[in-house]
């Protein structure tokens, strides 16, 4: 029995030993070197993706800004050609009126010359040789009297003929001027058409490219989200939502301090511009339901009693240039480049104060309040 019990005990220990040895070892809670390396590589990959996405986003935004600036420049070039065409039409109409007046004067001089020619012919028929005249009653004295009359008639005929020649010369000069004015008007009308087509094509391209960029930015944003952790994504989404909410309100609400804008013409122009917030940008539009940049500023100053052209080129020279540090409500703030050709200035806004302006930015946007501080700011003008 003791032997059996011992055998059973040994057997039991053996089975317990077998069971103990057969259980797997507890897992090591610490990550392995491989896990650490894999996690580090994932973090590097995501950081790389994030950098690429942000770079792509910056390129897309820069492309969109370039498209908008180019479209603005061509739209303002079109507005400038319209101003030139109106001036050319006025000059042609004035030249045509002067030609008509000169033609009337020429016809009057021609009629007078014809009458003098008829009189001269009558005098020639009525003239008799001196001997015959001396033989008539009155003698030599009567002949001298008649000769004096004929000499006076000759001087009148000479004056009449000179008037005719002068009227004819003036008529010819004015007729040439009118023809030149007509050709200028015709050429300008063709340039207006070319500028209009270029502006339309540029705006269409801007709309199409902006749509592409919007899709690109959406895809980039998705890549950015994929490169962030869940917490980062939530934080980013919340920040974007806040920025969007603020962005929708920013620039479309009249600031409380704007109620006390400076009085005078500039203040009236700025106050009127503030009432246009939210109206859509439409190129070459000047109200009342939509505007482009120079159309908005033209109408604003029109309400203040100052007439401006619908073109940044001439609005730039509509008054004295004002240092940016001395801006007042209503001053016009310009963007582009300063060259001899004013068409390189492609955007304008109306200053309201505190470094802010009201402007019609670009296709797809609305009249809004924005900061005046942009890299293409070239100066300001106070219309008068």
Compose a concise summary of this entry.
With 384 residues, this protein is of the alpha+beta class.
Q: What this model shows, in words?
A:
One of its GO terms (biological process) is proteolysis. GO terms for molecular function: cysteine-type peptidase activity. Pfam families: NLPC_P60. The protein contains eight helices and six strands; from the N terminus they run H-H-H-H-H-H-H-H-E-E-E-E-E-E. The chain is of the alpha+beta class and 384 residues long. The chain folds into two domains: 181 residues, Helix Hairpins; 127 residues, endopeptidase domain like (from Nostoc punctiforme) (endopeptidase fold (from Nostoc punctiforme)), CATH 3.90.1720.10. The chain has a six-stranded antiparallel beta sheet. A hairpin with an 8-residue loop joins strand 2 and strand 3. The N and C termini lie far apart (128 Å). The N terminus is likely disordered.
Shape: elongated
| Percent of residues in helices | 55-70%
Approximate strand percentage: 5-15%
Span between termini: 128 Å
* Main CATH class of the largest domain: Mainly Alpha
Instruction: Tell me, rounded to a whole number, the average pLDDT.
Output: 74
Instruction: Supply the number of helical segments.
Output: 8
Major sheet: arrangement of strands: 1-6-2-3-4-5
Assign the structural class, choosing from mainly alpha, mainly beta, alpha/beta, alpha+beta, or little secondary structure.
Answer: alpha+beta
CATH topology of the largest domain: Helix Hairpins
- Helix-strand pattern: HHHHHHHHEEEEEE
User: In this structure, how is the largest beta sheet organized?
Assistant: 6 strands, antiparallel
Unreliable parts: 1-28, 130-136, 243-248
What Rg is obtained from the alpha carbons, in whole angstroms? 45 Å
Q: How many structurally independent domains?
A: 2
Give the total of beta strands.
Answer: 6
CATH architect. name of the largest domain = Orthogonal Bundle
């Amino acid at each position: 029995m003791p032997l059996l019990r011992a055998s059973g005990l040994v057997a039991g220990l053996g089975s317990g030993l077998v069971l103990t040895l057969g259980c797997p070892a507890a897992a090591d809670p610490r990550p392995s070197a491989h896990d650490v390396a894999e996690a580090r590589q994932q973090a590097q990959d995501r950081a790389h993706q994030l950098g690429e996405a942000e770079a792509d986003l910056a390129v897309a935004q820069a492309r969109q800004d370039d498209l908008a600036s180019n479209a603005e420049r061509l739209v303002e070039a079109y507005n400038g050609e319209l101003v030139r065409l109106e001036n050319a039409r006025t000059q042609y109409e004035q030249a045509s009126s002067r030609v008509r007046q000169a033609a009337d004067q020429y016809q009057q001089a021609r009629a007078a010359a014809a009458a003098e020619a008829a009189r001269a012919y009558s005098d020639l028929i009525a003239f008799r040789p001196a001997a015959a005249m001396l033989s008539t009653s009155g003698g030599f004295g009567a002949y001298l009297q008649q000769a004096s009359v004929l000499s006076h008639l000759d001087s009148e005929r000479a004056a009449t003929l000179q008037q005719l020649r002068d009227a004819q010369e003036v008529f010819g000069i004015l007729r040439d001027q009118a023809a030149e004015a007509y050709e200028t008007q015709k050429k300008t009308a063709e340039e207006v058409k070319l500028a209009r087509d270029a502006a339309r094509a540029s705006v269409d391209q801007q709309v199409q490219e902006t749509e592409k960029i919007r899709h690109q930015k959406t895809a980039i944003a998705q890549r950015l989200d994929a490169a962030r952790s869940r917490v980062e994504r939530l934080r980013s989404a919340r920040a974007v939502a806040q920025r969007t909410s603020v962005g929708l309100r920013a620039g479309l609400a009249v600031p409380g301090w704007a109620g006390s804008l400076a009085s005078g013409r500039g203040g009236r122009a700025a106050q009127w511009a503030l009432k246009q917030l939210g109206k859509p940008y439409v190129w070459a539009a000047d109200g009342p339901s939509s505007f482009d940049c120079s159309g908005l500023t033209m109408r604003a100053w029109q309400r203040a009693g100052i007439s401006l052209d619908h073109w940044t080129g001439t609005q730039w020279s509509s008054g004295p240039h004002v240092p940016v540090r001395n801006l007042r409500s209503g001053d016009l703030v310009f963007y582009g480049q300063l060259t001899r050709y004013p068409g390189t200035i492609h955007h304008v806004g109306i200053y309201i104060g505190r470094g802010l302006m009201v402007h019609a930015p670009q296709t797809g946007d609305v009249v809004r309040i924005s900061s005046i501080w942009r890299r293409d700011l070239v100066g300001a003008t106070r219309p008068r």
